[in-house]
Amino acid sequence: MTIKLGLVYGGKSAEHKVSLQTALAVIKALDMSKFAIHPIYITDQGEWIRGNQLEGPVEDVKALQLNGEGTAISPVSLNQELFPAKSQDDDKIDVVFPLLHGPNGEDGTIQGMLELLNIPYVGNGVLASAAGMDKIVMKSLFAQAGLAQANYVSFIKSDWEKAAEASFQKVEDTLGYPCFVKPANLGSSVGISKCNDRDSLIKAFVEAFEYDRKIIIEEAIVGREIEIGVIGNDEPICSVVGEIAPKKEFYDYKAKYEDGDTDLIIPAEVTEEEYEQIREMAIKAFKAIDGSGLVRADFFLTKDGNALINEVNTMPGFTPFSMFPLLWKHTGVEYPALIEQLVQLALDRHEVKQQIKHTF
Question: What is the rounded distance in angstroms from the CA atom of residue 287 to the CA atom of residue 319?
């Protein structure tokens, strides 16, 4: 039976364009004999627009923006059993695939809405999505789980504004240079700066606080950037590992999504012991945030063979330059099969949830 799949993409986020590219790649990979694909576009102003069922592949992201097409909807209309609509065209979606990156999508907000609507959805739940988005909370959970990671400090904007000099001094005393300044709740390397002195640190604080009220500053680790894919629910499995070899100073937004000017080495050259260490840490991190569906776990691998976890991404990109689908391709899972597996994991998790008692 054909599965009615709602693809939610766009979003009110600085990563809006990234989401469009992810949606385009997923649509091109889906088997339309198995899925009835319904595009649901969230504009950068937060308006929801539902398009007609796709009859064929989409050629570019402009078509996905549904300009002049589609119907403005309330997201609650996605479950017609709870909120019946007048139009029969907006009937119930079987499962939703949130292809959203950043705040207002990857952070648990959409996931919470879908939970309330009792609609199966691909990927992580509310807790894992929120924890995976907030780098400060994430690192606290990793520390509790005993995972090795880089040293870091964090600030909220109001505290920094009251004591800027003390904030800068704390970074210098605790971490030194070089260091990386990042918004706490953003991905795709948006708003990230590498700092080598006080002047660059000041500029980095200002830029990062433009994207979030909380920022995190991490020590620079000398090591290889290693990534691994994780899929599953209660019994997650891992892909081969890959290595990021940016030709620039670090793997920034442009390298990830625009020019492809980065070498992705898959599989990465690691020893069996190093792979096993990374695999075990990735699964431990997945369980620490109560993950489900998928994550991409990012590590630093030092010269002495020790792995430090950097972060997990609960909705990794699916663009042609993205590491996550490439890792699984080299593991033996092609892109269409990967998407189908993620959809099935969503349906399996939803079925388990339906067995939970809600009365006493």
Answer: 26
Strands 214-219 and 152-156, how do they pair?
antiparallel
Question: Which residues contact residue 231 at a Cβ distance below 8 angstroms, ignoring those fewer than 6 apart?
Answer: 237, 239, 293, 294, 328, 338, 341, 342, 345
Residue 56: how many CB atoms within 10 A of its CB?
8
Q: Is the pTM of this model over 0.85?
A: yes
Tokens of 201: 């640190």
Distance of CA 329 to the CA centre of its chain: 19
Helices (H), 175-267: 198-209, 253-257
Q: What residues are paired with 296 via a beta bridge?
A: 229, 313
Contacts 24+ apart (CB under 8 A), 66-73: 66/39, 66/41, 70/39, 70/41, 72/47, 72/48, 73/40, 73/48, 73/49
Fold exhibited by the domain 222-352: D-amino Acid Aminotransferase; Chain A, domain 1 (3.30.470)
Q: Decide: 75 and 41 in contact? Cβ < 8 Å.
A: no
pLDDT tens for each residue of 128-149: 999 999 999 999 999 999 999 9
Q: Are 130 and 291 in contact (CB under 8 A)?
A: no
Query: What CATH class has 152-219?
Result: alpha beta
- By CB atoms closer than 10 A (0-12, 13-18, 19+), residue 217 is buried
**pLDDT under 70 in the chain at which residues?**
81-91, 187-189, 247-261, 320
Q: Is the dihedral of CA 21, 22, 27, 29 positive or negative?
A: positive
Delimit the domains of the chain by residue range: 3-121, 152-219, 222-352
Burial (CB < 10 A; 0-12, 13-18, 19+), residue 325, is buried
CATH topology of domain 3-121: Rossmann fold (3.40.50)
**Is-cis flag, bond preceding 320, omega within 30?**
no
Q: How far from chain centre, in Å, is Cα 269? A: 25
Q: Which two tokens stand for residue 239?
A: 């892909």
- Contact 278/306 with Cβ under 8 angstroms? no
pLDDT in tens, 273-303: 999 999 999 999 999 999 999 999 999 999 9
Beta strands (DSSP E) in the chain are 3-10, 35-42, 48-50, 71-73, 95-99, 152-156, 179-183, 193-195, 214-219, 224-232, 237-246, 262-265, 293-301, 307-313
